[in-house]
């Protein structure tokens, strides 16, 4: 019995080798990197920390472009568990201007606990900024650190408009 003869190696076509190398160089990790801006990442992180609910974030937060719920979930998990994306996002967020960070923090959703405290302010009362400032001082552990008395007043007015206060029917 004769041993099988191995076919002689055919030199690969030079253009084919280049195409194969190029397709291997693009890592799938950075697929959606361009759509998510550092401001979006910071807003996503702060909103999720406030609400603990990705669906609420999807419904209530306005990002720089329209993301569906699945994209928001994927980005959240990537920020948590993908070391490459997480590192790149953190570096980009650190480079944001302090004024941009303040603007982003002012857009953070209100948590249920914050709204619960706001509902206690009566609808028939005419609360001033001092009323909301006092609320901030009494409950620093409940309110988001970037909240201002003016922000609380505006949100309270919205809640009053939609009959969401405790003394409204």
UniProtKB/TrEMBL annotation:
Residues 35-169 form the Microspherule protein N-terminal domain. Residues 1-14 have a biased composition (Pro residues). It holds the Pfam family MCRS_N. GO terms for biological process: positive regulation of transcription by RNA polymerase II. One of its GO terms (molecular function) is G-quadruplex RNA binding. Signal peptide: none annotated. Residues 1-33 are annotated as: Disordered. Transmembrane segments: none annotated. GO terms for cellular component: Ino80 complex; MLL1 complex; NSL complex. This is MCRS1 protein. It comes from Caloenas nicobarica (Nicobar pigeon). The gene is Mcrs1_0.
């Amino acid at each position: 019995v004769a041993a099988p003869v191995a076919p002689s190696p055919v030199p690969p076509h030079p253009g084919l080798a280049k195409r194969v190398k190029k397709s291997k160089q693009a890592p799938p990790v950075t697929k959606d990197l361009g759509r998510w801006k550092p401001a979006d990442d910071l807003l996503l992180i702060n909103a999720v920390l406030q609400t603990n609910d990705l669906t609420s974030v999807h419904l209530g937060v306005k990002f720089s472009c329209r993301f569906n719920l699945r994209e928001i979930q994927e980005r959240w998990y990537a920020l948590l568990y993908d070391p490459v994306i997480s590192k790149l996002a953190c570096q980009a967020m650190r480079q944001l201007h302090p004024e941009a960070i303040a603007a982003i923090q002012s857009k953070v959703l209100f948590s249920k606990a914050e709204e619960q405290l706001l509902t206690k302010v009566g609808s028939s009362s005419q609360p001033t900024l001092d009323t909301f400032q006092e609320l901030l001082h009494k409950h620093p552990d409940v309110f988001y650190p970037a909240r201002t008395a003016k922000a609380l007043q505006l949100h309270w007015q919205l809640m009053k408009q939609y009959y969401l206060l405790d003394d409204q029917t």
